[in-house]
């Protein structure tokens, strides 16, 4: 059975369990153990075909890492077996910053000082492993784990996953690999390809050199066609220093005798790069020396650029050759997975970091992880100014990824809903006005409403997901307020709110048979409300204004709020009026599963509006082009409503209209789309794929019977009394 239902979890040894990745023989979980530590738990399930190989790796990993106590090596706490199921669980230190591989995949290259910092940390780990007669054999960005401090800044890089490591028979004597070479082909040193060769720390130095090249270029060294060996760093990173290029050149020499002979040697040259002095001259065939242990450079924050696109295509001939090398395992296996010392499947874990590394000023001020003091007092910033590599804009990142990442809720019909019984919902399974505006943005960029991936976020997660770059835009029934717009920041990055897509107001729902007709009738009664929301603060403010005392019961999720109201745990429930109508009418709609089961005739929403709640999109505030795109795509749906452009007529209007307003809107005249970095007919794509504002509103609230009556303020200013939706006009010179 999975770890959350294991005897350990049931006994309370682990709490706060959630899945964060997938291994070869089961899931990977985050949990808190009974000592209060944040841990990662990898499971090996006997029902899995890869069980025996995974278990062998777990046993080796636990044995080796448990004996290596070092601030740059991931701690393994235990390897437990459930006595009732024989399922095995490897419990390790949890890396709150994720893997280096994930960081590169999401945020792009590191600056030179940042890459040196990470490399120095791993060299410090390798000095200990080599002195203990261990060759890791699988150094790569996926096995370099990042740990952040409370501010989300990188404090430490650590080496993990010793599942294919090789041991020397006795200290000072090296032995050959017995049956097959371990490692990941794209990072393996040449000597690993022949089982008669001797492996030592220089094998790991080779792989670390390749990893350093990747940190600075995002390129897989062995997949670069027509390149010298080693390849030309400056071709892929023109701002890299000749000194760092020389370090990489020496680290990745084919002949182990021409590489750095100890981690200390390479660490010394990297510090020379930071000081601005040339690295030491390479030794032609030096004798192996032990050296003194290198120490890790003082921890420095890594600023995060906007997340980047996936890495480029692979040269066909090299790809075919490498596929032949490892068989049917495929490219992902080549790039990410280890070839075990004995044949069989491998544990290839992808973990989503819970705390992304924050964007910080370029001063690279020194920080340390609590309990792990810096080994030196010298910071990267004190010896060299940070070198930056241009990073893609949010639009470039989205276009290269070929899909938009849209943060939303998924549990509120009418706004954002997906069938909770579907384990792998597709884009088409989602519905709601927030969801449709995600589609509006996708249609504007790609011409297709389906080029979007929906990311479910809780109320507590939503703003951090925007600031961390985990989503490109947040559309989650979110109220625009001054403190959110100006006060929520991570480092130098804050939030921006786009145009309002739904004007809401704070309201109250009570039972129809109660005598409550206005808010004041709830004096000294209990009201359920979501904790730490504008609903909670607005509720308290309103009742103070009318001089009425109430008792509030607060809950972390809206599901808990309504469940307690349904169970008569409170006399009323307070939320946005739209949400109250949705919960009241969910069962009547017949469209949505897992409604609260309220009989709509047994509840009523009071007419009183206690505060205004303008709802709209949220983005980061450091990309003006992206802000303009989000703004004008939303404006387009409202302006189309104003001037009478809808799905049924947009194609004909694009061909034959003489209305200058429509010509400007649809890109027939003017350059609005091109000025935004989009196709000039982006609005035509929006209306064809998703519709104008009235169509979006009708689809999600009227056709579903969720919100009765007139839309009130949620219609264009010229579409009836009370409509307040308005936009700047689309014009052209």
Describe the structure.
By secondary structure, the chain is an alpha+beta fold. It has four domains: about 90 residues, Phosphorylase Kinase, domain 1 (2-Layer Sandwich); about 280 residues, Transferase(Phosphotransferase), domain 1, CATH 1.10.510; about 170 residues, D-Maltodextrin-Binding Protein, domain 2, CATH 3.40.190; about 110 residues, Periplasmic binding protein-like II (D-Maltodextrin-Binding Protein, domain 2). About 30% of the residues lie in helices and about 15% in strands. The chain is built from 24 helices and 24 strands. Strands 18, 19, 20, 21, 22 and 23 form a six-stranded mixed sheet that branches. A hairpin with a 4-residue loop joins β2 and β3. α4 runs antiparallel to α8, α7 runs antiparallel to α8 and α13 crosses α19. The chain is globular. About 15% of the residues have low confidence.
Structure at a glance:
The chain is α+β, with helices and mostly antiparallel strands. Strand 11 and strand 12 form a beta hairpin. About 16% of the residues have low confidence.
How many DSSP E strands?
A: 24
Mean pLDDT: 80
Sheet with the most strands, sense and barrel status: 6 strands, mixed
Tell me the β content: 15-25%
What is the annotated CATH architecture of the largest domain? Orthogonal Bundle
- By CATH reckoning, the class of the largest domain would read Mainly Alpha
Question: What is the CATH superfamily label of the largest domain?
Answer: Transferase(Phosphotransferase) domain 1
Broad structural category: alpha+beta
* Unreliable sequence segments: 169-180, 281-335, 340-390
Helical run tally: 24
What fraction, in percent, of the residue positions are helical?
25-40%
* Shape label: globular
